[in-house]
Design goal:
It contains 12 helices and 17 strands. The chain is of the alpha/beta class and 394 residues long. Bound molecules: pyridoxal-5'-phosphate (PLP).
């Protein structure tokens, strides 16, 4: 008999009843170190007092009014995102996949507006993940996700992630945009090089394409800069973000420069819930923390420390883990043993949460508020789990 919750997930049999900073407490009282953060979403950890206060106060005032009216909290968040990015304008939605759908619409509409309606194809990359709507299933590079869900939505093609020759060769008269994750999350914590990102900018400019970055997972401070591409000292035309932006409250956003957004006008895109006062209060509270002087530098410092210590773990346990991947606090351990074994050993033996990824990688996605003592606690747990797995394997 089917469960009342539709069985779309293989769930771990733990339920949490509360959280505090980087810790989650299960219903049996057990405390877990949360290096999953709701899949890179609880950027401020759990029950962050400033975020909780902002949500409670806004909920008591007004939660939702619809986009038929001006929403001051939305205008404030848009102004702040514009001031802290390459963008000139922002559309708000509720999830990552909606931000990608919106980004694609903005890009196609730009070409339509410029008298080139045939330019619709979005060039995507292998190992990409862009979400689960019918549209984004076609942008995502995983056949298994599409199976049984009807005809593939047209207008998306794929080239090897990191391969510039393939990217150039894929450009044609019908190409509208390039869509890339600066750090692939689900695909295995694969960080694009700065040179690759800069070369994508050049290709887009040369052929009149728009450049879209999917920073749903790697954006909003996770790399120690507000946006991951800032490390490459360049900018896309459009950026999709979500996850960490709301700190656990559902908020997504499409950021665009003026040129890219030139085809958009009232009536062309919308969502009932997107940008409502409650969601905007949450994201504004998250920005209060991320944009406070020194915060992102602190994320950069702690991320480098975690990486350095993980590199040492790899040297100590070569039979279990072989490489550290990713960047900032979107890190992955490429495993020698099945990644699920390490994830289970960490959770069951060490009370530490992590997330799997493709290519036998285990992701570590802690909240951005972790300190050195949390890094030490995580490394101790990973060392112990690896030692146990190495003993079993011997
Ligand atoms: N893009 C990337 C890079 C993601 O990691 C995800 C989710 O994991 C999505 C898009 C889809 O976001 P959502 O699950 O909020 O729709």
């Amino acid at each position: 008999m089917v469960t009342s919750v539709m069985p779309t997930y293989g769930r771990i049999d733990i339920a949490f009843e509360r959280g505090e900073g980087p810790y989650l407490f299960a219903t049996d009282g057990r405390r877990y170190l949360d290096f999953a953060a709701g899949i890179a979403t609880n950027s401020l950890g759990h029950a962050h007092p400033h975020l909780v206060k902002a949500i409670c106060e806004q909920a008591a005032r007004v939660m939702h009014v619809s986009n038929l009216y001006r929403i001051p909290e939305q205008e404030r968040l848009a102004d702040r995102l514009v001031a802290s990015s390459f963008a000139d304008t922002v559309f708000f939605c509720n999830s990552g996949v909606e931000a990608l759908e919106g980004s694609t619409k903005v890009a196609r509409r730009y070409h339509f507006h410029n008298g080139q309606p045939h330019r619709t194809r979005i060039i995507c990359c292998t190992h990409s993940f862009h979400g689960r709507t019918l549209g984004m299933l076609s942008a995502t590079d995983k056949e298994a996700y599409r199976e049984g869900f009807g005809p593939r939505v047209e207008g998306f093609s794929h080239v090897a992630f990191g391969n510039l020759n393939e990217m150039r060769a894929a450009v044609g008269d019908d190409a509208a945009a390039i869509l890339v994750e600066p750090i692939q999350g689900e695909g295995g914590a694969n960080a694009a090089s700065n040179d690759y990102l800069r070369a994508l900018r050049e290709i887009a400019d040369e052929f009149g394409l728009l450049l879209i970055f999917d920073e749903v997972q790697c954006g909003a401070g996770r790399t120690g800069k507000m946006w991951a591409h800032e490390w490459a000292d360049m900018a896309p035309d459009i950026l999709a973000t979500a996850k960490g932006l709301g700190g656990g409250f559902p908020v997504g956003a499409v950021l665009a420069n003026e040129k890219a957004a030139s085809g958009m006008k009232p009536g062309l895109h919308g969502t009932t819930f997107g940008g409502n006062p409650l969601a905007m209060a949450a994201a504004n509270a998250v920005l209060d923390v991320l944009l406070a002087p020194g915060f992102l530098d602190g994320v950069d410092r702690i991320a480098k420390l975690l990486r350095q210590k993980l590199e040492a773990v790899v040297r100590r346990h070569p039979a279990v883990v072989e490489e550290v991947r990713g960047a900032g606090l979107l890190l992955g351990l490429k495993c020698v043993v099945p990644n699920g074994d390490l994830q289970t050993a960490l959770r069951e033996g060490q009370s530490m949460l992590s997330v799997g990824a493709a290519d036998n990688v285990l992701r570590l996605l802690p909240p951005l508020i972790i300190t050195e003592s949390h890094v030490d606690e995580a490394i101790k747990a990973i060392d112990a789990a690896c030692a146990g797995l190495a003993r079993n394997a011997a």
